[in-house]
Here is the input.
Amino acid sequence: MRTKETKETKNLQTPGEQLPDKVLAKLVKDAEKGPFITFEEHHKKMDKWIQENYSNLI
Here is the structure.
C-alpha cells in the first residue's frame, strides 16, 4: 500500500481570532501547490465509494 507523506500541521487559529495576514498568505501558497483532482476523477471515486458502501441497500 502506498502512503502519502504528510507534514505535521498545527492549528494556527484560535476561536474568535483571525489568522495573521502573513500566515494566511503562506497557507494559501502551500494549498496552491497541493494535489488537485478534476471533477471527473472525484465523480468516479464517489461513484465507486457509493457502490462499495451502499450497494447492499439497493
Q: What stands out?
A: The radius of gyration is 18 Å. Residues 39-54 form the longest helix (16 residues). The mean pLDDT is 81. DSSP finds two helices and no strands in the chain.
